[in-house]
Amino acid sequence: MSDVDSIIERIGGAAAVASLTGVGLEAIRKWRQSRAIPAKHWPKLIEASGLGLDAFTPSQPAQEPGMTDPESSVPPGATAALVLADGSVFWGRGFGAHTGPDGEAIGELCFSTGLTGYQETLTDPSFAGQIITFTFPHIGNVGTNEADLEAATIAARGLVVRADVTAPSNWRSTQTLDAWLKRQRIPGIAGVDTRAVTLALREGGPQTAVLAYPADGRFDLAALRARAAAWPGLEGMDLAKEVSCRQSYHWSEARWDFSGAAAPAPRHKVVAVDYGAKRNILRSLVTAGCDVTVVPATATAEDILAHQPDGVFLSNGPGDPAATGAYAVPAIRGVIDSGTPVFGICLGHQLLALALGARTYKLPQGHRGANQPVKDLATGKVEITSQNHGFAVDGDSLPDGVEVSHVSLFDGSNEGLRCTDRRVFSVQYHPEASPGPSDSAHLFDRFVALMDAD
Q: Could you list the residue range(s) of the whole structural domain that residue 49 is in?
């Protein structure tokens, strides 16, 4: 690899590189310090510099706490490796399911800051195509059970944790995390400096990684690095079809109520479009008084309206909204044109924005965790929210008749919209996840109120 400093100077200096790649000067300082440029920026830099790919391929990967030289032998006790696209390698101890010789667990490496709910996180369909780094160290301490699933199977492709998974200590546990992962064929790696991983992603942005946990303990690091560098990333990737239901079904289960109170009788028929819907969203709709029919992500406006709904809900989900929008946007526009009230969450929010004529973009750092502050611009109140998204709506691109309703207090990005002349609104975060614990639960009641207005 050419010297990072020489590449930067060839392009015109740090300011020129920052403008070209959209990163901050602090990130470029980290590039110089680590002697490595994240692979996602190589195409633009190659075009700007006129250099070949070999100039950017690391001959000596970056050395950070928790990393080792990928050309060295396997460290004592290491049975798994996390190999990043920039060539960095984090060694650790594998658990869960073994991978094949090429390391099938490949995806976008991300981090989640939630202190609880690792089982819900792993089964959230919005994590499809991703390997999750948990910043909280005590993962696996309460085991697993069938009640806490957000979907029938794990959506994430692997997990990275700091501490070894211990025996569960919770009366609700029916299976250890390790056994559950084996059953789901999902690998994990423990003993990793998750702070170093988080800092690398915070400074350099999303990066592809391969999690390898071979049964024979043999690692072809050159092949793993090549696979990580070659993976295309989530931009342009439609994953909603992979996690959506295949046919329509009725959902009747309400949110858990330990007082024994029954769910209210349904007052409105709602069609929920499943782009990767979490079960607790469907429960929340039932608890708010909705009779819920779930339809596949590919349902057309005619399919949706054939159920004669009083309202339509657009669910969360994974992948690039622009890619999913190829088939989802025409359907959503048809529903909006019918005058039916619409409520969207997460990917549903992004797809609704696209249908209204706005734009979406990839965030430099995604929002994932249960401690995200969001301001409601109408009331001035701040809600503590749960989030899981790597793309966002460009609030400045919203057309006339559509206004920003919520913003992130972390980075100012868009967290909600509403139409001023139609019964349509959406939020980027997850009101069903109860991080506040009930700061955002009123949004389901707002949806019902729009349907009541008929």
A: 4-55
